[in-house]
Amino acid sequence: MARATVRSILAALALCAAGGAAAQERPVITIATVMSVPSVANFWAEEKGYFREAGVEVRVEVVDSLTKAVALLATNQIQLAQGGLNAGFFNAVGQGLPVALALESGSTPVNHNFIVRADLKDAIKTPADLKGRNVAVSGAGSLSVYELASLMESVGMTLADVNVKPLAFPQMGPAMAGRALDVALMVAPFSDRAVAQGLGVRWIDPEEGYLKVLPMTSLVYMSSADWVRGNRAIAARVVRALIRAGRDYCQAYHHGPERGEMLDMMVRHGIGADRESLDATSWQARTPDGLVNIDSLRDMKRLYTAEGFLEKNPPDDRLVFADLAADAAKSLGPFKLINEASPLKGCR
After folding, report:
1. Can you give the residue range of the structural domain that contains 315?
2. Residue 2 pLDDT > 50
3. pLDDT category, 25, cuts 50, 70, 90?
4. What is the pTM of this model?
5. Is residue 10 part of a domain?
6. Would you tell me how many other CB atoms lie within 10 Å of the CB of residue 306?
7. How far is residue 138 CA from its own chain's centroid?
8. Is the same domain home to 43 and 145?
């Protein structure tokens, strides 16, 4: 009996060793993410086994901004980074750094809103009324800058006609309360809070008649170009796993069966502490196929260049590994929405 037990233990240890060796043989990739509601797709792909089925081990690391991840991507210290598109990406490509977009993770509707300070709601009616005003954006060269520049362009003005104030979203409400700001371009839940607290009123959604190209690609997965070129098959499987998770996100976005579990996952990973608030927040939409809108990128380049944010104009063919998402989406087949009665735009 004792001998049989020893044999069983040895056999179990051998199986564990074999399993450990197999796990070690799987490539390890690192995905950096700027925490927001769409970040949940990374954790979803991990916990649902999509990455494991892709034959990789994935480490998800949190960063403050996508700009901080560029140097790590360029040296292949991390392989993918998810966050908001900005002028820094175009400058990196223009400077010849080996970075490129692998897929999209956020697009129209992005639910960005210009919030006018409550006591100015009768004084600021059109974009022309912003002349000389203090207007907050989320950062120098950020996507908010592109949206504000598009707004000003609609009335023949530029960013030079306003006082642009780069501020983090959590700082915008207090600055408005202290009358240091006249207008702020906010995202949910910060815009919701500002309105609920009586600090401001909703004014303009830049996607409603002010952006020249829609859908606007807003959130992306930037990749190490050297890693993609040297590990094409692995990169393709990882992108496919992320698109699978993105499609589940879209089902949850439209209040499908995955929403409750996804909300719990957001709380568990620190995307938000209040499940009810996350449920009530307007989620960022995305394309179920992960396709980057190259025309949107071109318009961003145009305005970033006009406003002096780009040092060089990077060629379009170096911006995106377009076939990665296209091939993955084709292999997954057409996306079919479960909750067909959903009135929400995007994620379709």
Report:
1. 24-109+215-332
2. no
3. confident
4. 0.90
5. no
6. 13
7. 14
8. no
